[in-house]
Specification:
- The chain folds into 2 domains: about 35-100 and about 110-245, no CATH class; about 250-405, no CATH class.
- Helix content is about 10%, strand content about 25%.
- The protein is built from 5 helices and 27 strands.
- It has helices spanning about 45-55, 240, 250-260, 315-320, 365-375, and strands spanning about 1-5, 25, 35-40, 60-65, 70-75, 80-85, 95, 120-125, 135-140, 145-150, 155, 165, 170-175, 190, 200, 225-230, 235, 290, 295-300, 325, 335-340, 340, 355-360, 365, 380, 385, 400-405.
- The strands form 7 sheets. It has a 7-stranded antiparallel sheet. A 4-stranded mixed sheet has the order 3-5-4-10, with helices on one face. Strands 7-6-8-9 form a 4-stranded mixed sheet, with no helix packed on it.
- The N and C termini lie far apart (about 50 Å).
- Pfam families: Pellino_FHA, Pellino_RING.
Length: about 400
């Protein structure tokens, strides 16, 4: 399977390097490194202490009270590969995830934020043989192959004598209904426990009291599953699913097709063109701009501002997005923003042309893609959910969260 970090429109602000990148592909390891639970040790025994201190032995420790800890030893599993995700840059983490700050272009914007992503957030175990089922579990093993659930963490004994628990901010998963296809609909967010059981959400993200166990649902990741680590949401794509999604080449062809139709500014009559996928921060001269209220596409022009009648410059417009402007075509008032093509191909539900733009950020994609993401409630902070643009994580605004683009063709 392949999963992708849902923020940076195809690449991280400082470039994709090593284990920090905007997407990360999972493939079969040369040698299996999966683990499965084996022996349970009640508190304070010599074997429990040994399991914790043994650097070659994976174990999970559940602290029940000062004097009581249950240690579950894990043993090697030849049939699975384990991949770990978290904020830590230590070697057990395969995919280093940083907090997603909505709409921020550079990492300098994100440094000051206190991260809510756990250092060892979750682990995914994949079968090494077909059908290569991938299962997700909360928490990852640290450098000494331990997971510690402290006194404050929610934990409990299961009916078969095993232990289970939840991590501080939790690992939430949503499987869309009808997979990740043109017919996709949002599913229900659930919380995944340390042992991979499925629960309804807690009252608040880090409440002591767990939700109810949902027996009928599974920790198996499917194409389009969303994994929320409280600060970043990841999209899981399967190899088979990705084979049906547009490629970056296909998106580039669609970009050239729009530009070949020579859309024009209905006011300045100049030809507009979407810039190449690599250029995606400052608008250029030919960049299309849109009135988000009505969808009329123009070139940049500096009149029609409501606040004052003087001429605006583009930098000011960039600095103060959302300032109201009146569309010269239809008089509708609303934000006036530059349009950018969504470059992360794996967020597209189909290969249709980019005809719709998210509001208020102006990222452009196909209609089905815009409709789908506008209906997905993404966890925000520790207690709210809202729809956001998958390309930049900005919260959607306006009635639908997106607008259909109305291009004017050349007059000749």
């Amino acid at each position: 399977g392949t999963h992708r970090d849902t923020q940076y429109n195809g690449s991280l602000p400082n470039g994709d390097r090593g284990r920090r990148k905007s997407h990360f592909s999972l493939s079969r390891r040369p040698k299996a490194n999966g683990v499965r639970p084996s022996t349970v040790h009640a508190a304070c025994t010599a074997q429990a202490a040994k399991a914790i201190s043994n650097k070659d032995q994976h174990s999970i420790s559940y602290t029940l009270s000062r004097g009581q800890t249950v240690v579950v030893e894990y043993t090697h599993d030849n049939n699975t590969d384990m991949f770990q995700i978290g904020r830590s840059t230590e070697s057990p983490i395969d995919f280093v995830v940083t907090d997603t700050v909505a709409g921020s272009q550079s990492n300098s914007d994100t440094q000051s934020v206190q991260s809510t992503i756990s250092r060892f957030a979750c682990r995914v175990l994949c079968q090494r043989t077909p059908p290569y089922t991938a299962r997700i579990y909360a928490a990852g093993f640290d450098s000494s192959k331990n997971i510690f659930l402290g006194e404050k963490a929610a934990k409990w004994k299961t009916c078969d004598g095993q232990m289970d628990g939840l991590t501080t901010n939790g690992v939430l998963v949503m499987h869309p209904r009808h997979g990740f296809t043109e017919d996709s609909k949002p599913g229900v967010w659930r919380e995944i426990s340390v042992c991979g059981n499925v629960f309804t959400l807690r009252e608040t993200r880090s409440a002591q009291q767990r939700g109810k166990m949902v027996e009928a649902e599974s920790q198996e990741l499917v194409d389009g599953s969303l994994i929320d680590l409280c600060g970043a949401t990841l999209l899981w794509r399967t190899a088979e699913g990705l084979s049906r999604t547009p490629t970056v080449k296909h998106l580039e062809a669609l970009r050239q097709e729009i530009n070949a139709a020579r859309p024009q500014c209905p006011v300045g009559f100049n030809t507009l063109a979407f810039p190449s996928m690599r250029r995606k921060d400052t608008p250029d001269e030919k960049q299309p701009w849109v009135y988000l209220q009505c969808g009329h596409v123009h070139g940049y022009h500096n009149w029609g501002s409501h606040r004052d009648r003087d001429r605006l410059d583009r930098d000011q417009e960039e600095r103060e997005p959302g300032r109201s402007r009146e569309c010269p075509m239809c008089r509708a008032s609303g934000p006036y923003v530059p349009l950018w093509l969504g470059c992360e191909a794996s967020f597209y539900l189909d290969t249709a042309p980019p005809t719709h733009a998210f509001s208020p950020c102006g990222h452009v994609c196909s209609e089905k893609t815009a409709v789908f993401w506008s209906q997905i409630p993404l966890p925000h902070g520790t207690h709210t959910f809202h729809a956001a643009c998958p390309f930049c994580a900005q919260q959607l605004s306006g009635e639908q969260g997106y607008v259909r683009l109305i291009f004017q063709g050349p007059l000749d």
